[in-house]
Amino acid sequence: MPLEKRTPKSRFARVAYSALLTALTLIASAPLFAKEVELSSVYRLLDHKNYSAAADKLSGLVQKHPENADVWYQYGVALYRDGQLDESIAASKKAATFEGYARYAHFNSGLAYAALGELKQAWFHIEKSMEQGYINPDQWSQEKDLAAFRSQGKFPLATKSHYEILKAKNRIEVPYHILLPENYEPSKRYRALLAFPPGNMGSASADWAIETLWARGKGNTDWIIVIPVAPENGWMNHPSHHALNDLMEHVRDHYAIEDNRFRFLGFQSGSRPASSFSVMSRNFVHSLTTVGAMNWEDWNTRSMREFKGLPVTLIAAEGDAPAMGINETAFRALKQQQANVRFNRLFGEGAKMESLYNNNLLGIIE
């Protein structure tokens, strides 16, 4: 993934960019809990579709680090992409035994079973991943081995939305959709929400967020909601960050926004760019909200001082033990750094967090 030679000035930004660049894997929502093994070379091989070499490298790593969850998970991904399906299932089943990895590993097992034509087993694992909160409409809509399930209407894919395209100053194209409040008045100032969707943050995941989270704007009277789609090279690189700034400038130029700042929100994997860019684009940001975020483990306690003064709301569901644990730890670390942080625990709610659908998130955002 390309990165401009110019690097962020603050220590936190440099650490964050390094973490972000190495974090992008084939399944963007995959967690990064096990940091003691350096996997950046594996991620590069996967990103360049050199799956056989990645599988070979990981074959050695699982022998050296048999208790490392991420090594097993990435091994399952590489084997699947390389066509070693039985081996992929075995590796993914091992990865599923580690806390926090089950939802992603089950999905990978489902892909491999589907490729083998074992559709009953495939759906068992895919449905399990969805029940455990794995939401990635980009994969649901694009993986060739899931065609049979798509034709049966098994996935909650949303109606396609229309996206405008912003061509940034650095020539990166950013698709985006804006939901205006009902009875919108151009002369009135509204709160603005920059809402990163889940999954791979592509158009199918944005479609899902527009329809499911934001109900296509129905009942919204107070917010301008901007849903960006990840550009071709993804969000996790320096040029795309500048393109996002250009998108926010564009929105500010065309709409009257309260205090000229955006509330940043990341749903699941969308929390990664939301939390990182809320620091790197501080002049644009009013507050940050993350929902079911697993990425807070990417920052150490000291680096969280960069959030000081920024209102942060963490949301996690009681029924999602891995996310709850990560957010509990992040809450304590942010409080230690004197951040203005709240933790909204969804008691009685599962990993899908369905109580937040249909614009219900708007009542939580600060």
Low-confidence stretches: 1-35
CATH topology label of the largest domain: Rossmann fold
What is the CA-CA span between the terminal residues? 34 Å
**Helical coverage, percent range:** 40-55%
CATH superfamily of the largest domain: Alpha/Beta hydrolase fold, catalytic domain
Please tell me the total number of domains. 2
Largest sheet: 8 strands, mixed
Mean pLDDT: 89
CATH C-level name of the largest domain: Alpha Beta
> What is the N-to-C succession of helices and strands?
HHHHHHHHHEEEHEHEHEEHE
Number of helices: 13
Query: What is the alpha-carbon Rg in Å?
Result: 20 Å
CATH-level-2 architecture of the largest domain: 3-Layer(aba) Sandwich
Number of strands: 8
Task: Name some characteristics of this structure.
single chain, Rossmann fold, 8 strands
Topology readout:
Blueprint: H1 11-23, H2 40-47, H3 51-64, H4 69-81, H5 85-95, H6 102-115, H7 119-131, H8 137-142, H9 147-151, E1 164-167, E2 173-179, E3 190-196, H10 203-213, E4 223-228, H11 238-254, E5 257-267, H12 271-280, E6 285-291, E7 312-317, H13 321-336, E8 341-346
Parallel strand pairs: 3-4, 3-5, 5-6, 6-7, 7-8
Antiparallel strand pairs: 1-2, 2-4
Helix pairs in contact: 1-12, 2-3, 3-4, 4-5, 4-6, 5-6, 6-7
What would you say this structure looks like, in words?
41% of the residues lie in helices and 15% in strands. The radius of gyration is 20 Å and the shape is globular. It has two domains: 30-134, Serine Threonine Protein Phosphatase 5, Tetratricopeptide repeat (Alpha Horseshoe); 164-363, Alpha/Beta hydrolase fold, catalytic domain (Rossmann fold), CATH 3.40.50.1820. It has 366 residues and is α/β, with parallel strands linked by helices. Helix 12 (271-280) links the parallel strand 5 and strand 6 (285-291). The longest helix has 17 residues, at 238-254. Strands 1-2-4-3-5-6-7-8 form an eight-stranded mixed sheet, sandwiched between helices. It has 13 helices and eight strands. Helix 4 runs antiparallel to helix 5.
